[in-house]
Amino acid sequence: MEGLRKFPPRPTGAGEMFQLFRDGTPHTRASLVAETGQSRSTVAARIEALTAVGLLAPAGEATSTGGRPPSTFAFDPSARIVLGVDLGATHARLAVTDLAATPLASADEPLAIAEGPDHVLSWVAEIGSKLVAQSGRQVSELAGIGIGLPGPVDHADGRPVNPPIMPGWDGADVPGVLHRHLGAPVVVDNDVNVMALGEHRTACPDEQDLLFVKVATGIGAGVVMDGELRRGAQGAAGDLGHVAVTGADTPCRCGNTGCLEAVAGGLAIANALAAAGSHAETTQEIVDLVRAGDVAASQAVRQAGRDIGTVLAASVSLLNPSRIIIGGILAGAGEHLIAGIREVVYQRSLPLATQHLRIVTSQAGAQAGVIGAATLVTDRFLAAHSVDALITVKEDT
Amino acid sequence: MEGLRKFPPRPTGAGEMFQLFRDGTPHTRASLVAETGQSRSTVAARIEALTAVGLLAPAGEATSTGGRPPSTFAFDPSARIVLGVDLGATHARLAVTDLAATPLASADEPLAIAEGPDHVLSWVAEIGSKLVAQSGRQVSELAGIGIGLPGPVDHADGRPVNPPIMPGWDGADVPGVLHRHLGAPVVVDNDVNVMALGEHRTACPDEQDLLFVKVATGIGAGVVMDGELRRGAQGAAGDLGHVAVTGADTPCRCGNTGCLEAVAGGLAIANALAAAGSHAETTQEIVDLVRAGDVAASQAVRQAGRDIGTVLAASVSLLNPSRIIIGGILAGAGEHLIAGIREVVYQRSLPLATQHLRIVTSQAGAQAGVIGAATLVTDRFLAAHSVDALITVKEDT
After folding, report:
1. Do residue A320 and residue B256 have CB atoms under 8 angstroms apart?
2. In a domain? residue A2
3. Is this prediction's pTM over 0.90?
4. Would the N or C end of chain A have less CB density within 10 A of its end CB?
5. B335-378 pLDDT, tens digit each
6. Are residues B58 and B86 part of one domain?
């Protein structure tokens, strides 16, 4: 009876067979026939094509149930390499990864983004090339370069759009410049989106709807719905820093008053601490004070959490995520920040939207950005190439 | 150079060829070969399979460029029928449509949802059967039934979850009951999602990111991102009615204070009017007062627009839609509501998110619900059956 009411399931199609391998699980021809409902000859031809392009490799023999043991096949993430780049205002992280976005070599360097795109991107290419060599591979093996920038990016053409803390970068052809240096396809996104993607894939890949919130000097979010990062019409989705906080009237550098960033960002907390007689120059120093047990700092961070909570409560009503993940430097202040956020979100949201909601601290931490940047590339590369391989099968058979 | 930086495009696969027909455009075998990059034999086999299941029909001959003129094929939306149902608290709309969600027969009837699921769903089945007969078709031709309910629905199993204005419906097996009556698959969603879907498909199908806001006694929204309705983890996404309005402290029936619905819903406006010496019992009467030129009513509706605008400004920062569509009974008050909304959204949002944002009134109007409900069905039916047909091709050739 239940079955009769359902539409027939959408059968596993072209690119989807390869997706079964993405998590690393090995499969035999027989298990794929069972899982996909495809004929034995179709499955065999697809495995052959994916093996020919290097995405699948033999992975030993499965246990036999009598007769010759069946061969197993598994995704070979070493087929190509990727360069993931996470640029901040004063800091850069780079990693060469395999096609599973697992780092093979990485670097963590001071960098002034204000030196402009020519200087910074040449430097990225130089360090990137060194990391490729360090991991024993060639630049020609790059499947692509993924890069996160600390400002708004037009996702369609990969160019920054009026980025406030990146002088000289407005409209810069980041993909073109990096491609001239390294000769591989380039994907650009803002830093919070790449962190959200890195966190999603490493910490909770099965979660379909989540909000990743970066709390540092600035405040921003990455939106995942139905398992994919959602960027909105101009790639500006998740820009929570300038949402009005109920009851607040602090002037903000954007020209409005009461913006979340002006009320609960690193600078606002430092100002609150100064008024209470404590002293912190940077967001990291605020975190250090909290860890050292400074009461005023703990109270200020908890209040910032409450203010962030008012904006997140509205976001919970709008998006109904199953998880909110708090990242960024201030997440290092631990339970004080999260406690303030939880207090307001659970009070201000409807029960249906919070009954299964978890609010947690980032697990990927500082690595979220480079892993996410590499993942931007692996997703596109594997989607494009696995389908290529399968289309070839179809035309041949 | 530009091409070198790009990943190869994902080739047109299985279900995607049929999608080229969904907008009604006729195609020839040759045009499909050019558009999809598939071989002539693959295209021919797919057309044959789609014709065999009735989804495609010959559509005359194209202009010849010499020799025998090529045959054209087009989607045949009359292959099956659909029942779309939009239930409100005191009102029901039903329509029998074809597979393009174009109404063939419709009904618009008073109905008390509070009479409970058994009574209401029997009635829906009875009126639905009459409409099927009236459109000259058979109940056995139903591809499915789509139904929108005025309360939260668990999208996975189609059951209402604690719906505040639907006594007796909590957890009711709506799909099971309707299937027993009519023998077709059933898809259930909340009324605002169904309206958002209907509006999206009829008024602006190419818009990828939009927010549809229903403003009536209650206030709620449907979220479309990357071209699809996004429902969130429990199907509660878009529930804006209980987001806090900056500076407001009106008590709300949900137990919190300052909720958008308590500040700017139909009842709140009626209360504001009573205080100003005007009188309206229902949201429709408020609209009538505004249309009659009542100054207090116009001012109250514009203020409601501003309050809705504060919540929508936060939504614009979070989702970066390219369009906000205002529907529901109060949208009938015209420019007064929209003007208040625009005033606050453009003032409170960042320029990047509003540079291409349009805020408009619903075009589908009262029909949005039934068309959306029918679309829930056609989308699933066509996705499932077109892929079925194509899979059959692949196994055969």
Report:
1. no
2. no
3. no
4. N
5. 999 999 999 999 988 878 888 899 999 998 888 999 999 999 99
6. no
